[in-house]
Write a structure and sequence with these properties.
The chain is α/β, with parallel strands linked by helices and 152 residues long. The protein contains six helices and six strands. It has one domain: CBS-domain (Roll). 42% of the residues lie in helices and 20% in strands. The longest helix has 24 residues.
Length: 152
Amino acid sequence: MSSIGALVKEHPLYTVSGSLTVLETARYMTEKNVGALPVVDANQLVGIFSERDMVTRVIAKGLDPKTLLTRDVMTTRLVVAQMDESLDDCLLKMQQAHCRHMPVVKGEHLVGFVSLRDLLQLDITAKDESLEYLHSYIYTVPPGMAKRYETH
Protein backbone atom coordinates (compact mmCIF):
# COMPACT_ATOMS: atom_id res chain seq x y z
CA MET A 1 0.00 0.00 0.00
CA SER A 2 1.77 3.07 -1.21
CA SER A 3 -0.82 5.85 -1.07
CA ILE A 4 -3.23 7.10 1.53
CA GLY A 5 -6.03 6.48 -0.97
CA ALA A 6 -5.60 2.72 -0.65
CA LEU A 7 -5.94 2.99 3.12
CA VAL A 8 -9.10 5.09 3.14
CA LYS A 9 -10.85 2.67 0.80
CA GLU A 10 -10.64 0.10 3.62
CA HIS A 11 -12.35 2.29 6.22
CA PRO A 12 -15.90 3.64 6.34
CA LEU A 13 -16.19 7.43 6.41
CA TYR A 14 -18.25 8.82 9.27
CA THR A 15 -19.06 12.54 9.43
CA VAL A 16 -21.17 14.86 11.54
CA SER A 17 -22.90 18.16 10.99
CA GLY A 18 -21.70 21.20 12.88
CA SER A 19 -25.30 21.84 13.89
CA LEU A 20 -25.32 18.82 16.22
CA THR A 21 -24.76 19.45 19.90
CA VAL A 22 -21.44 18.33 21.34
CA LEU A 23 -23.33 15.68 23.30
CA GLU A 24 -24.90 14.28 20.11
CA THR A 25 -21.52 14.26 18.40
CA ALA A 26 -19.88 12.56 21.40
CA ARG A 27 -22.56 9.87 21.41
CA TYR A 28 -22.06 9.28 17.68
CA MET A 29 -18.29 9.05 18.20
CA THR A 30 -18.91 6.47 20.93
CA GLU A 31 -21.29 4.51 18.71
CA LYS A 32 -18.75 4.39 15.88
CA ASN A 33 -15.79 3.88 18.25
CA VAL A 34 -13.76 6.76 16.84
CA GLY A 35 -11.72 9.50 18.50
CA ALA A 36 -12.47 12.22 15.96
CA LEU A 37 -14.82 13.02 13.11
CA PRO A 38 -14.79 15.34 10.12
CA VAL A 39 -17.46 18.03 10.36
CA VAL A 40 -19.30 18.80 7.13
CA ASP A 41 -21.73 21.48 6.07
CA ALA A 42 -23.54 21.20 2.73
CA ASN A 43 -21.17 18.34 1.82
CA GLN A 44 -18.12 20.57 2.41
CA LEU A 45 -15.46 19.82 5.00
CA VAL A 46 -15.54 22.64 7.54
CA GLY A 47 -13.69 21.18 10.53
CA ILE A 48 -12.77 18.26 12.75
CA PHE A 49 -14.18 17.47 16.16
CA SER A 50 -11.99 15.30 18.40
CA GLU A 51 -11.93 13.98 21.94
CA ARG A 52 -9.25 16.57 22.63
CA ASP A 53 -11.57 19.36 21.46
CA MET A 54 -14.18 18.06 23.86
CA VAL A 55 -11.81 17.99 26.80
CA THR A 56 -10.05 21.32 26.21
CA ARG A 57 -12.85 23.41 24.72
CA VAL A 58 -15.91 22.05 26.50
CA ILE A 59 -15.28 20.10 29.70
CA ALA A 60 -12.27 22.08 30.97
CA LYS A 61 -14.20 25.32 30.44
CA GLY A 62 -17.31 24.05 32.19
CA LEU A 63 -19.50 24.45 29.09
CA ASP A 64 -22.69 22.44 28.60
CA PRO A 65 -22.33 19.76 25.88
CA LYS A 66 -26.14 19.46 25.72
CA THR A 67 -26.54 22.98 24.34
CA LEU A 68 -23.17 23.79 22.77
CA LEU A 69 -22.96 23.18 19.02
CA THR A 70 -20.13 21.17 17.52
CA ARG A 71 -19.33 23.96 15.03
CA ASP A 72 -18.59 26.32 17.94
CA VAL A 73 -15.77 24.17 19.34
CA MET A 74 -14.45 22.18 16.36
CA THR A 75 -10.95 22.58 14.98
CA THR A 76 -11.07 24.68 11.81
CA ARG A 77 -7.38 24.96 10.91
CA LEU A 78 -7.17 21.78 8.89
CA VAL A 79 -4.28 19.82 7.50
CA VAL A 80 -5.50 17.53 4.73
CA ALA A 81 -4.02 14.78 2.60
CA GLN A 82 -4.68 14.22 -1.08
CA MET A 83 -5.68 10.71 -2.19
CA ASP A 84 -2.42 10.15 -4.06
CA GLU A 85 -0.10 11.21 -1.22
CA SER A 86 2.24 8.62 0.20
CA LEU A 87 1.78 7.25 3.70
CA ASP A 88 5.16 8.70 4.68
CA ASP A 89 4.12 12.17 3.48
CA CYS A 90 0.94 11.93 5.53
CA LEU A 91 2.86 10.90 8.64
CA LEU A 92 5.21 13.83 8.12
CA LYS A 93 2.29 16.26 7.73
CA MET A 94 0.70 14.98 10.92
CA GLN A 95 3.98 15.27 12.79
CA GLN A 96 4.58 18.83 11.60
CA ALA A 97 1.01 19.91 12.41
CA HIS A 98 0.97 18.09 15.77
CA CYS A 99 -2.31 16.39 14.87
CA ARG A 100 -3.55 12.84 15.24
CA HIS A 101 -6.34 12.83 12.64
CA MET A 102 -6.39 13.99 9.05
CA PRO A 103 -9.10 14.28 6.41
CA VAL A 104 -8.29 12.84 3.01
CA VAL A 105 -9.61 14.70 -0.01
CA LYS A 106 -9.81 14.19 -3.73
CA GLY A 107 -9.76 17.68 -5.14
CA GLU A 108 -12.26 19.51 -2.95
CA HIS A 109 -14.24 16.45 -1.87
CA LEU A 110 -13.80 14.60 1.42
CA VAL A 111 -13.19 10.93 0.69
CA GLY A 112 -11.69 9.59 3.90
CA PHE A 113 -10.34 10.23 7.36
CA VAL A 114 -7.23 8.65 8.86
CA SER A 115 -5.71 8.55 12.29
CA LEU A 116 -2.11 8.41 13.38
CA ARG A 117 -2.87 4.94 14.73
CA ASP A 118 -3.99 3.78 11.25
CA LEU A 119 -0.74 4.98 9.68
CA LEU A 120 1.51 3.61 12.41
CA GLN A 121 -0.20 0.22 12.28
CA LEU A 122 0.50 0.03 8.55
CA ASP A 123 4.11 1.02 9.15
CA ILE A 124 4.52 -1.66 11.83
CA THR A 125 2.91 -4.30 9.61
CA ALA A 126 5.25 -3.42 6.72
CA LYS A 127 8.28 -3.62 8.99
CA ASP A 128 7.13 -6.99 10.37
CA GLU A 129 6.82 -8.33 6.82
CA SER A 130 10.32 -7.07 5.98
CA LEU A 131 11.75 -8.69 9.10
CA GLU A 132 10.11 -12.01 8.27
CA TYR A 133 11.54 -11.87 4.76
CA LEU A 134 15.03 -11.04 6.03
CA HIS A 135 14.84 -13.74 8.68
CA SER A 136 13.89 -16.41 6.13
CA TYR A 137 16.60 -15.16 3.75
CA ILE A 138 19.29 -15.35 6.42
CA TYR A 139 18.26 -18.68 7.92
CA THR A 140 17.27 -20.61 4.81
CA VAL A 141 19.90 -22.84 3.28
CA PRO A 142 19.84 -22.56 -0.51
CA PRO A 143 19.14 -25.79 -2.41
CA GLY A 144 22.29 -27.82 -2.99
CA MET A 145 24.30 -26.07 -0.27
CA ALA A 146 23.45 -28.59 2.44
CA LYS A 147 25.07 -31.46 0.47
CA ARG A 148 28.32 -29.52 0.10
CA TYR A 149 28.80 -29.31 3.83
CA GLU A 150 27.62 -32.78 4.83
CA THR A 151 30.20 -34.83 6.71
CA HIS A 152 30.48 -38.57 6.19
